[in-house]
Amino acid sequence: MDEDILELFRVLGAGRLGAKIYCTLLSSGQMTLSRLSEETGIVAPQLYQYLKRLETLGLIEVSRGKPNLYRAVSPDVLEAVYKERLERVGKRALEKLRSMPRRVQADERSYGVFVLRSWRSFRARVLEEIKSANYDILMCGDSAFMKGYWDELEEKEKKGANVYVILYEVPGIPLDEKAVRVSKVRRAVSGDIMAILDSKVALVAQRRIGPRDVPEYGLVVEEPVLVDYLEHEFFHRWLRGEVLRDSPLRLPSVFTVHRLAALE
Questions:
Q1: Which end of the chain has fewer CB atoms at under 10 Å, N or C?
Q2: Within 10 Å of residue 103's Cβ, how many Cβ atoms?
Q3: Per residue, what are the HEC states of 43-84?
Q4: How far are the Cα atoms of 76, 121, 141, 165, 220 from residue 117, in angstroms, in the given order?
């Protein structure tokens, strides 16, 4: 059976046999318990238990009679059930995880370079760091990458953070100047995907060569020497870039990137 279908039913708590039963009813139409047992090869007592589970989840409909008839709900209904369950269970689980006490050892340091193998997690990590930044936010990337961050960057700039963005084009991803929402933006020929926040942490991924090209991994850099080096690299790209927006700073302003402060 398709692994994506199996994963969906695992999340719903119906498992492999639940997926098999649902798919059989979906493809063959309504059935009695005995006929369904013949089609699936699942013995009647076990099949009955899974049918009760699927009925409780709202994934099948039952017509009571002698014998009972079972049929699958449509995939659209299954989608609604899946989303509701995922949201409900996810919300409870995340509340518990966020309230979980965290023990910090006396010698624990946040210095180092950490690898993220998920592009989705890397993007979420960038947004998390943007939200926690207070002073300087340096961003470099293509328009598709930046699309998910303009709202938060604009909000941060309104609150007094200094936001600098370098945009570059990727084949198949044109530079979208209309989407720009902050005061300091320049165009560069190329560059890696980068976010540097308050001179404390940098997130870096290899540049993309096309719209479907996704970096295999990203780096979370918390080593001060390396963060400073990446700021230096950003600064030189900034000096060489073509100005797209350059509005005056709102004063007073606090910088952690002293090169940019001197430039302003």
A1: N
A2: 5
A3: CHHHHHHHHHHHHHHCCEEEECCCCCEEEECCHHHHHHHHHH
A4: 32, 8, 19, 25, 11
Per-residue DSSP letter, 179:
G
Tokens encoding 78? 């299954």
Domain boundaries, given as residue ranges, for the chain: 3-97, 113-263
Assign domain 3-97 to its CATH architecture. Orthogonal Bundle (1.10)
pTM: 0.73
pLDDT single digits (tens) 196-251: 999 999 999 987 777 778 888 899 999 999 999 999 999 999 999 999 999 988 88
The fourth-level CATH superfamily of domain 113-263 is Endonuclease Chain A (3.30.870.10)
Phi, psi dihedral angles at 73 (to 5 degrees)? -70, 165
